[in-house]
């Protein structure tokens, strides 16, 4: 089974688990918002709103949300901006849940969810060039073995001046853990249990974006100099470690691995904004 297939199979059980544990918001929030006392869900919405403002999205614009999961971020961004969104997943079960959410929120006319093939992210060939005003991603690119190919295909789809914005899981040296071997001791179990294709660094992402032709305006570690415990309240830990639904042992193993990487400081989350400036097709 190839890596992309393993990711799709992972979400057959992780999707229902994440929905039970986190509702429809599956990504970190703005740490400044959390520091003000907002809940993890409210802070996640604040981060979505910050990024779509950077993208300049508004009514009449068209955006693609890559790795849309059960649709929480996609639907909120559409409601907040007035733009039309297409959400992409490689798992039809997640897309079905997302379609129901859009219908429940009265946005089925402006938010569409599609299930694509495991490697379609490498070309996004279903759309002609310059189809979108913005492309977003929330902790989904970390699953991709060929991240650079996604960034290039996304660049092709953006209109001149269009923006790619998102957040993703990263690795970094921290404290006593500075060498690749020391970092890998904590990150490799995260990659294995959560079906990630290797975590990049902030610099890796910035370089991939620049190589793909973007002008990078934001490449920010959201937790500089501190362990990344954002969006993981201590009171939520028993829910994760006690989860006994389908795939429960793997969900628990992923929680153990991720908490160890957080505690070591080598795991973090980055926020990105980049624009297409040229007019070539």
Which terms would index this structure?
281 residues; 10 helices
**CATH fold-level assignment:** Rossmann fold
Count of helix runs: 10
The total of beta strands comes to 7
- Order of strands across the main sheet: 3-2-1-4-5-7-6
Major sheet attributes: 7 strands, mixed
Q: Which structural class should the secondary elements be placed in?
A: alpha/beta
CATH architecture: 3-Layer(aba) Sandwich
Q: Could you tell me how far the N terminus lies from the C terminus, measured between alpha carbons in angstroms?
A: 35 Å
Outline type: globular
What does this structure look like?
The chain has 281 residues and is of the alpha/beta class. The protein has a single domain (3-276), classed as Vaccinia Virus protein VP39 (Rossmann fold). The chain contains 10 helices and 7 strands. The protein has helices at residues 3-22, 31-35, 40-55, 72-81, 92-104, 147-157, 180-193, 202-211, 237-241, 248-264; strands at residues 62-66, 84-89, 111-115, 132-138, 158-171, 214-221, 267-276. Strand 1 (62-66), helix 4 and strand 2 (84-89) form a beta-alpha-beta unit. The longest helix is centred in the N-terminal third of the chain and has 20 residues, at 3-22. The model has no long low-confidence stretch (mean pLDDT 96).
């Amino acid at each position: 089974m190839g890596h992309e297939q393993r990711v799709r199979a992972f979400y057959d059980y992780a999707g229902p688990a994440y929905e039970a544990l986190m509702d429809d918001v599956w990504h970190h929030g703005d740490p400044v918002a959390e520091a003000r006392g907002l809940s993890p869900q409210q802070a996640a919405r604040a981060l979505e709103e910050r990024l779509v403002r950077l993208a300049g999205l508004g009514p009449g614009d068209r955006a693609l949300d890559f790795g849309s999961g059960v649709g929480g971020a996609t639907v909120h961004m559409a409601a907040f901006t007035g733009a039309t969104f297409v959400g992409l997943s490689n798992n039809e079960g997640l897309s079905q849940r997302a379609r129901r959410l859009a219908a429940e929120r009265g946005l089925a006319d402006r938010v569409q969810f599609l299930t694509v093939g495991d490697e379609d992210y490498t070309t996004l060939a279903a759309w002609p060039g310059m189809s979108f005003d913005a492309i977003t991603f929330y902790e989904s690119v970390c699953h991709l073995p060929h991240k650079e190919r996604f960034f290039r295909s996304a660049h092709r789809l953006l209109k001149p001046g269009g923006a790619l914005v998102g957040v993703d899981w990263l690795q970094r040296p921290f404290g006593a853990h500075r060498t690749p071997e020391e970092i890998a001791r904590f990150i490799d179990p995260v990659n294995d249990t959560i079906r990630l294709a290797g975590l990049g660094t902030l610099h890796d992402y910035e370089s991939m974006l620049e190589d793909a032709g973007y002008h990078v305006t934001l490449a920010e570690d959201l937790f500089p100099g501190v362990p990344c415990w954002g969006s993981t309240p201590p009171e939520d830990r028993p829910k994760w470690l006690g989860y006994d639904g389908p795939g429960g042992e793997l969900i628990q193993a992923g929680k153990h691995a991720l908490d160890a990487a957080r505690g070591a400081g080598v795991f973090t989350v980055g926020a990105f904004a980049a624009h297409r400036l040229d007019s070539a097709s």
